[in-house]
Amino acid sequence: MVDAIRLSGGEQAPLTSFTSIASGAIHAQDDDRPLHLQFRRFAGCPICHLHLHSFLRRGADLDPYVREVVFFHSSVEELQPHLAHLPPVTIADPDKRIYRAFGVDAGRRALLHPKAILAALMSSAVASYRVVQGRQALPARSPQGGRLGLPADFLVSRTGQILACHYGQHADDQWSVDDVLELAGR
Questions:
Q1: pLDDT in tens, 44-62
Q2: pLDDT given at position 81
Q3: How far apart are CA 64 and CA 129, in angstroms?
Q4: pLDDT of 2
């Protein structure tokens, strides 16, 4: 796939209002905290779920500094079985309209990097254990939007300015909780 046009820090975000599956409308200007926009892959992606669990565990650390907003290129129906294990502000973007607006793309390199392979093995083992325990649903066999999405992170101010951004080079290349806290100026 050809790389999408990428955004940079200092630019205006193409969108600053979103509609979450569970919590309704969210607008950047409604709060002094910046939005941390996380573009993940598909509903049930083991790598994404393991990564998001680190954010859920540290929610009390993050909440004073940022508002977490997570995007999946999956339909609401594909996301429903996973909502109990996702942040409250989860957005379905099955047509990748928001992904394209932010320049988030996909490609074979998503899973071919050695770090992505290791992350896939580790996260699949954790996901399998959770599925067997009944604590996590299986991903769709053929997820809408495919399996080759690349992650991306954006920190967007209440005025819509991109404060920082990161486009992942592989499926496990995203900001950590500590990265977000540092960028948000904790």
A1: 777 877 888 899 999 999 9
A2: 83
A3: 33
A4: 47
Q: What is the mean pLDDT of residues 171-186?
A: 91
Query: Is 11 among the domain residues?
Result: no
Our measurement of the distance from residue 23's CA atom to the centroid of its chain's CA atoms, rounded to an integer in Å, reads: 16
Residue 12, in any domain of the structure: no
CB 140 within 8 A of CB 158: no
| Lookup: tokens for 106 | 């996909």
Q: Is residue 8 part of a domain?
A: no
Q: Which residue has the tokens 């954010």?
A: 55
Domain coverage including residue 78: 17-183
Indicate the number of domains in the chain: 1
Q: What are phi and psi of 34, to 5 degrees?
A: -70, 160
> 27: how many CB neighbours lie within 10 A of its CB?
12
Q: How far apart are CA 19 and CA 39, in angstroms?
A: 15
C-alpha torsion angle, residues 53, 58, 62, 64 (rounded to 10):
140
Q: Is residue 130 part of a domain?
A: yes
